[in-house]
Structures are given as structure tokens and as C-alpha cells.
Amino acid sequence: MRFTAGGSSTRSWQPKPTADTTDLRFWLRWRVAVCALWVLCCVAAAAYLVWRHEGPRAHRRPGAAKQDAAAQGRRRPDGLLYDDEAWRPCLRDIHPAWLLAYRLVSFFVLFSLLIVIVISDGGNIFYYYTQWTFILVTVYFGVSEK
């Protein structure tokens, strides 16, 4: 299935500008204000969650006092990571074979989707950077160190 712009343009993948974004009237529309408000609300919620659950005050959350004193003495500071801890799964109960199986299934699903996209839309689909990102994610699931 191909989606092409009307007309006889040979390069239909190029977007056509519909509004002048350099004009002040474009930015003073109510739609822009609603979008800006939506983004700012999301940023504020994310900042609150990071402030609440990360950083030096995170250990003072309600319920942290219930831990015994010995466990708090051995606790390392919040946000401190050693070696490759950022890449390890949070749940220690997950067997590495399940993670490998997940990566393999993800790789084959993504690779098959990529093949279908290239067959249906042709090589011109790689003009879009999102397709290159999709390829990089596919390679990430296909090539793993562990």
C-alpha cells in the first residue's frame, strides 16, 4: 500500500509546508497554548516524581523508617551505580535464559516488520530517520554481549 500526495510529483515523500511557523500569529493560536500546557504538565509531573523518588532525600520516604538499623547502615547512597549495574535487570529472580528468549523473539519480530516495510514501501522509506532508529533498535536486540 502506498500513500502518495496528489499530483505528479516524483518526490512525494517530501513534506509540504502548510503554515508559516515564523509568523507570530501561528504561535498565538489556542492549539499551541494547549500543546504547551500539556507538555509543561508532563514535565512538572516527571520533575516531581524524580524529586520524590530519587536523590538524597529518597531514603526519607514514608516506610523507610520500618527498615532495621543494620540494613540502613549497609545501604549505599541513592543514585550510586557500580560497573554495569545500569544494564542489569532490576529483578534478580529473572533467569538470564528468559531475557535471552525475550531478546531473540523481539529481534525476529522487529526484523520481520522491517522486511515487510521495505517490501511494501521500497527503499525510499529510509529517507525518514525514524526508520533508521527502527533499524538500530532491531540491531540492538540482535546483537547483545551477554
The total tally of domains equals: 2
List low-confidence stretches: 65-70
The helix/strand class is mainly alpha
Largest sheet: none
The share of residues in extended strands comes to: under 5%
| Secondary structure: helix percent | 40-55%
String of helices and strands:
HHHHH
3D architecture notes:
This protein is mainly alpha-helical. The protein folds into two domains: 15-80; 88-146, no CATH class. It has helices at residues 24-27, 30-53, 69-74, 96-121, 129-142. Helix 4 (96-121) packs antiparallel against helix 5. The longest helix has 26 residues, at 96-121. The radius of gyration is 24 Å and the shape is flat. Residues 65-70 have low confidence and may be disordered. One of its GO terms (cellular component) is membrane. The chain crosses the membrane at residues 30-51, 97-119, 125-143. Keywords: Membrane, Transmembrane, Transmembrane helix.
Structure in a nutshell:
It contains five helices and no strands.
Summarize the helices and strands and which ones pair or pack.
Blueprint: H1 24-27, H2 30-53, H3 69-74, H4 96-121, H5 129-142
Helix pairs in contact: 4-5
List keywords for this structure.
146 residues, mainly alpha, 2 domains, 5 helices, 51% helix, 0% strand, flat, membrane, transmembrane, transmembrane helix
